[in-house]
């Protein structure tokens, strides 16, 4: 069956890096992968063309597709717009509209780039962890929320951390399934010693563990997890946590690898359909110069093949090809050591296609 992939280049460097992903997908298609690509508009590009960052048409295209590949959205030109029309709303609208509650953020350190990390190479070399973050619930969405004025005139701000059992269970299942496809170890991160919500979180994870005897479940308090990530990050395989804890821990984990231009991400629904994107933004400071690193986007394509299209061999091929071009010494400016010669976006993409 032909699988449909919706390509949303977006803004800034988005179109440049996505063009390289299309080259890779075209090559896999020529080699027999049964896919069909379709282009759509999101973010500032959609606002410019149609007056809204997420036109109805784009959401319909996304719903009809088997997977979505997004470049990046946003840019200084759009910052003065009212909030509902800003490019970022396109992204949030897609997440909500597609019910993408499971956010997968890997942090992989390629041995060739061990020097890019701020941590010592012996601490991070070989790092390969995946953080599964709950994306549509928790304190970022809980009601009631707001700022109110008390009787004595003092202001009070409040948010609500709330999770239903069903919400915990579905993110838990997503994480157990993924741990099964990786190293078979899952660490659930909570604050069960202080927060009742995460006590429930822990109970649900323990219950689910009974259904996944092949996955080894452990628990860690979030403060310790933050410390362990910078002390001995290789102890982790898959981590699963709440929306806010995951927001913070996944950025810390990303920086262990040194380059934002290397990291992919995925957001999945209950059926495994997903949206895939590099973790970085639209990089307006380098847009249009042809120097952006396309590898995070190419690695996002690999995640798409693995998690939504069930084509693990094709995913392996892309990841191996990326390893090979790094071995060959090819570097975009963001991952080059001082004085090392660099290549541009298209040259890097072409090299990966050749290495495929
Ligand atoms: P950014 O990730 O765009 O850029 C941060 C720094 O990293 C910049 O110096 C940039 O040049 C560099 N960088 C990023 N990606 C790179 C790549 N592939 N190759 C080489 N260098 C790269 O973050 P920012 O500057 O805070 O935000 C810029 C815009 O992007 C804003 O409008 C923001 O809202 C938006 N944004 C979008 C997303 C998204 O689409 N998912 C995520 C974050 C930020």
Q: Explain this structure to me?
A:
This protein is α/β, with parallel strands linked by helices. It has 2 domains: 1-101 and 269-356, 3-Layer(aba) Sandwich (Isopropylmalate Dehydrogenase), CATH 3.40.718; 106-262, Isopropylmalate Dehydrogenase, CATH 3.40.718. It is 40% helix and 19% strand. The chain has 12 helices and 12 strands. The chain has helices spanning 14-30, 44-50, 56-64, 87-98, 121-124, 165-181, 196-209, 222-231, 243-256, 295-307, 312-327, 345-355, and strands spanning 3-10, 35-39, 67-72, 102-108, 128-134, 146-149, 155-158, 185-190, 216-221, 238-241, 264-268, 274-278. The strands form 2 sheets. It has a 10-stranded mixed sheet with strand order 2-1-3-12-11-4-5-10-8-9, with helices on both faces. Helix 7 links the parallel strand 8 and strand 9 (216-221). Helix 1 packs across helix 10, helix 1 packs parallel to helix 12 (345-355) and helix 11 crosses helix 12 (345-355). It is globular. The two termini are 23 Å apart. The mean pLDDT is 95.
Largest sheet, order of strands side by side? 2-1-3-12-11-4-5-10-8-9
The chain-level mean pLDDT equals: 95
Residues in helices, as a percent range: 40-55%
Query: Looking at this structure, what is the CATH superfamily of the largest domain?
Result: Isopropylmalate Dehydrogenase
CATH architecture of the largest domain: 3-Layer(aba) Sandwich
Spans where pLDDT lies below 50 across 5 or more residues:
none
Multimeric status of the protein: single chain
Helix/sheet category:
alpha/beta
Order of helices and strands: EHEHHEHEHEEEHEHEHEHEEHHH
């Amino acid at each position: 069956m032909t699988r449909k992939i919706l390509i949303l280049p977006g803004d800034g460097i988005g179109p440049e890096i996505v063009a390289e992903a299309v080259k890779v997908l075209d090559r896999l298609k020529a080699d027999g992968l049964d896919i069909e690509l379709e282009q759509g508009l999101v973010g500032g590009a959609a606002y410019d063309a149609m007056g809204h960052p997420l036109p109805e048409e784009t959401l319909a295209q996304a719903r009809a597709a088997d997977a979505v590949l997004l470049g990046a959205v946003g840019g200084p030109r759009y910052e003065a717009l009212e909030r509902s029309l800003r490019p970022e709303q396109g992204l949030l609208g897609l997440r909500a509209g597609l019910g993408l509650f499971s956010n997968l953020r890997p942090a992989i350190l390629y041995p060739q780039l061990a020097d890019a990390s701020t941590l010592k190479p012996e601490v991070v070399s070989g790092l390969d962890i995946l953080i599964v973050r709950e994306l549509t619930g928790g304190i970022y969405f809980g009601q009631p929320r707001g700022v109110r004025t008390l009787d004595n005139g003092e202001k009070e701000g409040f948010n609500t951390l709330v999770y239903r059992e069903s919400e915990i269970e579905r993110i838990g299942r997503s994480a157990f399934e993924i741990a099964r496809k990786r190293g078979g170890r899952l660490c659930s991160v909570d604050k069960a010693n202080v927060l009742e919500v995460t006590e429930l979180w822990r109970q649900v994870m323990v219950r689910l563990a009974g259904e996944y005897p092949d996955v080894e479940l452990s628990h860690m308090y979030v403060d310790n997890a933050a410390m362990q990530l910078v002390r001995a990050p290789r102890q982790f395989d898959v981590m699963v946590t709440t929306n806010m804890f995951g927001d913070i821990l996944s950025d810390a984990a990303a920086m262990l690898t040194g380059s934002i231009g290397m990291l992919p991400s995925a957001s999945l629904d209950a059926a495994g359909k997903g949206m895939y994107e590099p973790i970085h933004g639209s990089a307006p400071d380098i847009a249009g110069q042809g120097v952006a690193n396309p590898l995070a986007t190419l690695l996002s394509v690999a995640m798409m093949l693995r998690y939504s299209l069930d084509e693990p061999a094709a995913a392996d091929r892309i990841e191996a090809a990326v390893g090979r071009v790094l071995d060959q010494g090819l570097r975009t400016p963001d991952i080059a050591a001082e004085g090392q010669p660099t290549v541009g976006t298209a040259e890097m993409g072409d090299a990966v296609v050749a290495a495929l």
